[in-house]
Amino acid sequence: MKIAVIGTGYVGLVSGTCFAEFGHDVTCVDKDTTKIDALLKGIMPIYEPGLDALVARGVENKNLQFTTDLKAAMDGADAVFIAVGTPSRRGDGHADLQYVYAAAEECALYIDRYTVIVTKSTVPVGTGAEIRRRVGAKIDNSLFDVASNPEFLREGAAIEDFMRPDRVVVGADSARAEHVLKELYRPLFLNETPILITARETAEVIKYASNAFLATKISFINEVADLCEQVGADVQDVARGMGFDGRIGKKFLHAGPGYGGSCFPKDTRALIHSAHEYDVDMSIVNAVNALNEKRKADMASKIIKACGNDVTGKKIAVLGLTFKPNTDDMRESPSLAIIPALQSAGAIVSAFDPKGMPEAKELMPEINYCDNAYICMDGADALVILTEWNEFRALNMDRVKSLLATPNIIDLRNIYARTDLASQGFLYTRIGNGVVSGEAK
Questions:
Q1: What is the distance between the alpha carbons of residues 81 and 282, in angstroms, rounded to a whole number?
Q2: Each residue of 179-189: b (16+ CB within 10 Å) or e?
Q3: Of 73, 90, 350, 384, which residue is the least packed, with the fewest Cβ within 10 Å?
Q4: Pick from 162, 96, 97: which is nearest to 128 by CA?
Q5: What is the pLDDT of residues 245-275, one digit of tens each?
Q6: Can you list the domains of the chain with their CATH numbers?
Q7: Number of other residues whose CB lies within 10 A of the CB of residue 399
Q8: Which long-range contacts (CB under 8 A, 24 or more apart) does 23-27 make?
Q9: Are 91 and 118 in contact (CB under 8 A)?
Q10: Which whole number is the average pLDDT over 308-323?
Q11: Nearest-angstrom CA–CA distance, 379 and 398
């Protein structure tokens, strides 16, 4: 089948590339000529493991193209996927849908045969109906249908998630649209991937409800971690004990500095706003959103406390800036709240991240950015682990201790064993079980 994908950001580029891998004829469209020119040269606008090789294969096989010309991309297309940004709107936190609606209305200019307009962007309930109304005002309703096909891609594992998903959700308002989407996902259907066909509005709610629930699990275990620190319990053991229960599951029960990224923060806010429009009280999601913002401030305080309640003039080395490992995404990362709070308290911050520093430099220019983890910690009064990149999991602790001015490690991702570092003479602070003080030598 032939499809067009509008938007070459995270969702659009990964989805389009994977559809091409399925054997479909895919054209990815973007108004950003610089981005398209780079893609034509094989340069990726995002970091996602394995994506560059998959794009190269699609281009070589001649079933993956990139262009700024939507008309050409839509010529003969069976479906057009809208995968543009839906950032939080200033002032009220609702999803800004201007790019979605603009893309849909531009599609209407070039539809001359039956085409399914598919929202891949995360959009509030009712967006598909509004797209149908707007496009229907321009062309005959028999020429198109509007469907919802939300994405469930984890940054850092997006290709695996697309190729081997837990489920595919399709919200369609006609059998014809349903048929087109089933054909597009035929390789997954043959692999017996669950494909849930629902009403369009249901599909739109599924996406927001899924992200809000996962955000709730994160905030819940972070609150439990606070309790563990006060009563002498270990939050990691608590999480394991909970996770063995099949009704709960072990995923997203990792205590840390709060969630970030392109999805959870904005999607929880958008769900709250949508519920408010329909006079529904989303008190749990409201609390989750508030708790996550508080969590970041609390983590800055935790670092300061671990440094003797005063970081004035002290050098703090930070490892990890992105909101999670295996991505260069800095959107709403906890580091963007924690580091400025440390600087406001008088700390001098040096930082290293394997992939996130180019974007971080634009957002936090006052940091001393370093070429590797060891340069970052040289002469520091404390070492803070903010993102659990694999290369931070096996640091040479003898070298770390020789470089730090004070052997003080604050691990906000719990990637080390508390007894191991304490026995090596480190002052070691973790999440969910307080400080274990070794004999600093």
A1: 30
A2: ebbbebbeebe
A3: 90
A4: 97
A5: 999 999 999 999 999 998 999 999 999 999 9
A6: 2-197 (3.40.50.720), 199-441 (3.40.50.720)
A7: 12
A8: 23/63, 23/187, 24/63, 24/184, 25/1, 25/63, 26/2, 26/58, 26/63, 26/64, 26/65, 27/2, 27/3, 27/64, 27/65, 27/66, 27/67, 27/72, 27/73, 27/77
A9: no
A10: 98
A11: 14
Nearest to 11 by CA among 98, 85, 105, 97: 85
Does the pTM of the predicted model rise above 0.90? Answer: yes
Amino acid 438 reads: G
Q: How far apart are CA 170 and CA 182, in angstroms?
A: 9
Q: What is the structure's pLDDT at 347?
A: 98
Tokens of 185: 């996902």
Q: CB of 433 within 8 A of CB of 229? A: yes
What sign does the dihedral 196-201-205-207 (CA atoms) show? positive
pLDDT at 90: 77
What is the 3-class SS of 24-74, one letter each residue? Answer: CEEEEECCCHHHHHHHHCCCCCCCCCCHHHHHHHHHHCCCEEEECCHHHHH
Q: Known catalytic residues?
A: 263
334-343, 351-360, 421-430: range with lowest mean pLDDT: 421-430
Selection from 151, 150, 118, 112 nearest residue 132 by Cα = 118
Taking alpha carbons only, the member of 440, 416, 441, 439 closest to residue 429 is 416
Distance between CA atoms of 76 and 115, rounded to whole angstroms? 9
Per the CB < 8 A criterion, the answer to whether 406 and 317 are in contact is no
CA 79, 84, 90, 91 torsion-angle sign:
positive
Which residue is listed with tokens 């499809």?
3
In contact, 440 and 406? CB cutoff 8 Å: yes
For 119-165, the pLDDT digits (tens) are 999 999 999 999 999 999 999 999 999 999 999 999 999 999 999 99
* 339, 351 Cβ separation under 8 angstroms: yes
Q: 399 with 331: CB under 8 angstroms?
A: no
